[in-house]
Amino acid sequence: MATSSSGSATKAISLFLKDIKSEFRTRYAINAIAMFAVVTVFAISFAIKGTGLSTELQASLLWIVIYFSSLSGLAQSFVKEEESKTAMALRLYAPAEVIFAGKLLFNLVLLFGLNLITIPLFAIFISFEVASYPLFFAILLIGSTGLAVVTTFVAAIISKASVKGALFAVLSFPLILPLLVEAISGTKKAMTDGIAFGAARMEIQVLLSYLVIMVVLSFLLFEAVWND
Questions:
Q1: pTM for the complete prediction?
Q2: Where do the structural domains in the chain lie, given as residue ranges?
Q3: 137 falls in which pLDDT band (50, 70, 90)?
């Protein structure tokens, strides 16, 4: 059992490294995510023209930018396998859950990289200020992980469709909406003076519950989606 688990982990990491090397050659997902985030933040900054925004609106805009930026690149994790005709080789290489783990790890790295771009830009151009950094980063970590799980699973569903971009947004939004609502609420509290973890306990509990449910469902259902 230990040997089998070790072998699965090795294959998942190998798949992750393969995707990293492939992405550095093409830079499609990186460029799409980075450009969308940068252009959107600059557009928002130009639109408000120094006008102060409420903490709720700032938190909402942050997560909207993160969500739609992720849509522009994370779908490629499975789409490129279908387009390059390597999906069958992956099915022979490893079990479905191992493939999902490798793809999820790759999308997590992309999404955390997106956060490294988006948050500093927000701080500079939108006057985004955080009162409780531990709470902010906790919400960001849990929310981003949940977003990566759902988008990775949906990417597998739409990888064989003819209209991938539109279908990706349509399928992912209803699943992501509960996460966005709680992440925005938790981020707003992290931006408010004197707010500690206790005040955002409900948001953290809901986000963690959402994450656990989505991880379990994704691993349980992925084999049927991947081998269909």
A1: 0.89
A2: 2-226
A3: very high
